[in-house]
Design a protein that fits this description.
single chain, mainly alpha
Length: about 200
């Protein structure tokens, strides 16, 4: 399973790299994207859409899988809804993303509380790993909400239409966002390394 995890990670990294270079070499909807923001985009998408599915098959506990199925439905509905707003109606604004982030935080927090009430301890095999992942998701969503709010203050309503801007580029006005994103990318990478270590120990049992 660990080999599958790294294969999925590499595929996501390659897709992100392709998107980064393609987005910056031609005029595309969404605008140019900075390297720090591209890393964050790939990191967030991996944790939203790939890792929950992987963990669903990784665990063999029915309650764990119920929680993960809830997370999968939550994020894949978002993918459909946001893709429609961005690529079809071209009417996406940061407020939509921030609202869904907050809703997701509430849902995931509820799942965490349910897990704790059910077991009353983290001694249950795999519970620490799943709880770590859910807490990391909450941190990602919170951080993404902060980014979205700062981005909104800089671009206003220019996230709509054929010339929509969705990302922080290397332009000077995005310097502070990119600086914070670059710094936080290291922090979240360390979190993921810690999670991989937990996955390794769990897989050995």
């Amino acid at each position: 399973m660990v080999i599958i995890f790294f294969a999925l990670l590499i595929i996501t990294a390659l897709i992100t790299a392709y998107y980064y270079f393609n987005q910056n070499k031609q005029k595309s909807i969404g605008g140019k994207i900075s390297s720090a923001k591209a890393f964050w985009l790939g990191y967030a998408l991996f944790n939203y859409f790939v890792l929950p599915v992987f963990l669903f098959f990784f665990f063999e506990h029915s309650l764990f899988n119920q929680v993960l199925w809830l997370i999968i439905c939550l994020f894949y509905f978002r993918m459909l809804f946001q893709s429609y707003l961005m690529f079809i109606s071209k009417n996406w604004i940061p407020n939509y993303g921030m609202f869904y982030n907050i809703l997701s935080i509430l849902v995931i927090s509820y799942a965490l509380i349910k897990l704790y009430i059910t077991f009353g301890t983290f001694a249950q095999p795999g519970l620490l790993l799943l709880s770590f992942f859910l807490c990391k998701l909450i941190l990602i969503l919170f951080t993404d909400t902060v980014y979205a709010n700062k981005f909104k203050l800089l671009v206003g309503n220019h996230t709509k239409g054929n010339d929509a801007v969705w990302y922080a580029s290397e332009e000077k006005k995005f310097k502070n966002i990119n600086k914070a994103t670059f710094r936080n990318n290291f922090f979240f990478s360390l979190l993921s390394i810690s999670q991989i270590i937990l996955m390794f120990f769990y897989d050995q049992h």
